[in-house]
Design a protein that fits this description.
- Helix 9 (201-222) links the parallel strand 7 (193-198) and strand 8.
- The protein has twelve helices and eight strands.
- It is 52% helix and 13% strand.
Length: 290
């Protein structure tokens, strides 16, 4: 296309353009120019214009190629991360206290999203690790109007705050309810890494891959923001069998078994539940989910 444009422009007939470019130099030496001398004819103006336009087109084409190259490179990174995800296996790594990486990570802000429906020890030990490794951890609860929860996001956020306070995790951990896209919120908070808690990659990996593919178009088109780097955090083996679904089932069973479920401290189900969530939140969780 550029070659055709160049051929057409170079075949254009020449014409004369006059510019008053000698007046300034004549005034500098104190001489006067006649009107004819004041106008310097530049012939073959069509060829000059065509050459200029060609250079502009080439420059724009180069910029577009560079832009497409950058986009293609970044998409290749997304595809690479999808094919080879970053997974932190237990025991989770911790940089040395005096290392450069350690000092850098203590200045970083990371996001740990989840439904926390309800929160349990599996979540808490992950947050504890992230709070120890990074400067600030933001626990996000997405408020989805198209998905129904028996307990509101604000109530779940308060449960999480209560549990974090019970284990002294309030200095560099904050809990946020996000109305909208998590990617946009994470970028607005200047976060560096997006952590996802999973039981094991063999169990939750296929679902997580599907969620990544489904979330990318929304982040790129609706945000528009570039998705953050996702790191998957495999659960502590002590809590790999723990899930929010299990906690909810035990709560329902406790409440259905006896209306006075607060007096069931010696029951097997209540003892089992006390190993899944902090004791300070037992009554609140049973009341909300029972």
């Amino acid at each position: 296309m550029i070659a055709v444009l160049r051929a057409l422009l170079l075949k254009r007939p020449g014409f004369e353009i006059y510019f008053p470019i000698r007046a300034a130099s004549a005034a500098a030496v104190g001489t006067a120019l006649t009107p004819e001398e004041n106008l310097l004819p530049i012939r073959n103006g069509g060829l000059a214009f065509a050459s200029w336009l060609l250079q502009v087109c080439l420059a724009l084409t180069g910029m577009m190629m560079i832009g497409f190259g950058v986009i293609a490179f970044r998409f290749s990174i997304l595809v690479f991360n999808l094919a080879f995800p970053e997974i932190l296996h237990f025991p989770w790594p911790m940089p040395q206290g005096s290392s450069r990486q350690r000092r850098h990570e203590k200045k970083m802000k990371v996001v740990f999203p989840g439904s926390f429906n309800p929160p349990h020890w599996g979540h808490l030990v992950m947050i504890q690790y992230l709070a120890k490794r990074y400067g600030q951890v933001i626990c996000c609860l997405a408020s989805n109007p198209y998905k129904h929860y028996e307990v509101s996001s604000k109530e779940r956020a308060q449960m999480l705050v209560t549990m974090l306070e019970s284990i002294n995790l309030t200095e560099n951990v904050q809990v946020e309810v996000v109305d909208g896209d998590l990617w946009t919120f994470a970028r607005q908070q200047n976060t560096c890494v997006f952590f996802r808690g999973i039981r094991t990659w063999s169990v939750d990996g296929p679902v997580e891959r599907l969620l990544q593919v489904l979330n990318w178009p929304g982040a790129l088109l609706l945000g528009p923001v570039w998705p953050l780097r996702i790191t998957f955090l495999e659960a502590d083996p002590r809590y790999q069998d723990v899930s929010s679904t299990l906690v909810r089932k035990i709560c329902v069973k406790l409440k259905q078994g006896d209306k006075h479920y607060f007096d069931l401290a010696n029951s097997d189900d209540c003892k089992r539940l006390s190993r899944l969530i902090p004791e300070c939140a037992l009554n609140t969780v049973i009341e909300a989910y029972g």
